[in-house]
Amino acid sequence: MQVANKSAVSIHYTLTNSAGVQLDSSIGSQPLEYLHGENTIIPGLEQALTGKKVGDKFNVTIEAANAYGTYQSSMVQIVPRQMFEGVEKLEVGMMFHADVSHGTGMVTITHIDGDNITVDGNHPLAGEDLTFAVEIMGVRPATADELAHGHIHGEGCHH
Ligand code: ZN
Question: E strands along the chain, which residues?
């Protein structure tokens, strides 16, 4: 069968950025299994997978806007150190769950200037064009349970 909405799809993938640096890969571990059509993977990749079948291999380059989004400078802001009450030592690169001005998400500390802490709410891969090398390992209809939950139930995972 072909990859379509409501398919449970498993893929092996290797992700590289536009400089050719490998960022992630499933090779050597379990394939990624996901429920197609539920926005559980980035939109550009889901689009590229539609209609593919087991054994298909392809490379696809996805522009930032269809991957983790373009870089939004409005998601960078300076907040007072007091917002991190309870954290012993703040360092550049630390990530926090935050409820800043754009809803709840992850922010990364990118600069520290005394009590002024710069946080960036962009996804670490925002603004990056990404290339995926993909091989389709399996396609099956999702079960009723999986469809109700909006995700795949892998081995040993029933909830
Ligand atoms: Zn579930």
Answer: 7-17, 22-25, 32-35, 57-62, 76-80, 95-99, 104-113, 116-120, 130-141
C-alpha span between 128 and 116 (Å, rounded)? 28
Strand partners, 111: 118
DSSP strand pairing (95-99 vs 32-35): unpaired
Distance CA(39)–CA(45), nearest Å, equals 10
Q: Does position 103 have pLDDT exceeding 80, yes or no?
A: no
State residue 59's pLDDT score.
98
Mean pLDDT highest for which of 12-16, 77-81, 99-103, 151-155? 12-16
Residue 115 sits at the vertex; the CA angle it makes with 113 and 117, to the nearest 5 degrees, is 60
Task: Output the CA 106–ligand 1 centroid distance in Å.
Answer: 24
Ligand 1 centroid to 138 CA: how many Å? 19
18 has a pLDDT exceeding 60: yes
Q: How far is the CA of 75 from the centre of ligand 1 (A)?
A: 32
Give the global pTM: 0.80
Q: Rounded to the nearest whole angstrom, what is the distance from the C-alpha of residue 17 to the centroid of ligand 1?
A: 32
> In angstroms, what is the span from residue 115 Cα to ligand 1's centroid?
43
CA of 145 to the centre of ligand 1 (A): 7
